[in-house]
Amino acid sequence: MVHPGGWFEKLYPRLTTPYASRIHLNSPVTRIIRDNTGVVITTPSGTQRFDQVVLACHADQALAMLGDASSAEQEILGAMPYQDNEVVLHTDTALLPRRQRAWASWNYRLDQRDSEARVSVTYDMNILQRIESDTTFCVTLNDSASIDPNKVLGRYTYAHPQFTLAGQAAQGRHAEISSTAYRTHFCGAYWRNGFHEDGVWSALRVAQALGCDEAAPPPSQPSALPAHELLTPQGVEGLG
Ligand SMILES: Cc1cc2nc3c(=O)[nH]c(=O)nc-3n(C[C@H](O)[C@H](O)[C@H](O)COP(=O)(O)OP(=O)(O)OC[C@H]3O[C@@H](n4cnc5c(N)ncnc54)[C@H](O)[C@@H]3O)c2cc1C
């Protein structure tokens, strides 16, 4: 989630200014076809040809887009299962620990659950995203029934990767499907442990395959600085 006025909203234009006119938002890719000279990508606005394609989405979404998936792509991407989780945005602080001093960004709830029940977690979004408000915004996973319906702001379903032995074996086969030779690259948190940093780790691997050298000195144009150059322990350099 990105909240208005947050650091990401300020960082994003600085990262994308050099190529902002070429970013297509709200353009779901419906089909990707590779041939000897390039990649043809279809969206509701039509088809476009590119040299290479990076699929920064979930494994099943990537497979669904590939109109000419190889057997290796089918095997590897098909071995990464996902589980849907119900996610509710609400203001019912009863889902947080009874003692307010114990409230944290992530609050796990294990009470009255048998071993088969999925773990419930409630995020205190005000702490997690430094939201300054008299209202405490919460996001709860897998505990919809406990939330006061009058305090629900929105209900969503998000898919999380599930980690299985087959999936782990598939993670090790990334090089079989992702390379400039195949004009196709795959990244996303599912290539490691499913967290944000795993998405970044996998994106750096793709960037390196495409010839980006992390060790190279940053360009002089500040708007083109990579994210890690802008980040300081306090937040984003030069941004309030
Ligand atoms: C409720 C919740 C809380 C979480 N909390 C944390 C946390 O506290 N810390 C943490 O490290 N991780 C957390 N995670 C996990 C984290 O969000 C994921 O690891 C991360 O977002 C995965 O990044 P990704 O780039 O792999 O996939 P995503 O962020 O899911 O990005 C995939 C993108 O692909 C796009 N896409 C899909 N299909 C198409 C298509 N056909 N055409 C074009 N675009 C398409 C989607 O719109 C989406 O923008 C949380 C996840 C959830 C759901």
UniProtKB/TrEMBL annotation:
Residues 214-240 are annotated as: Disordered. SUPFAM superfamilies: FAD/NAD(P)-binding domain. Residues 21-64 form the Amine oxidase domain. This is Amine oxidase domain-containing protein. It comes from Vreelandella olivaria.
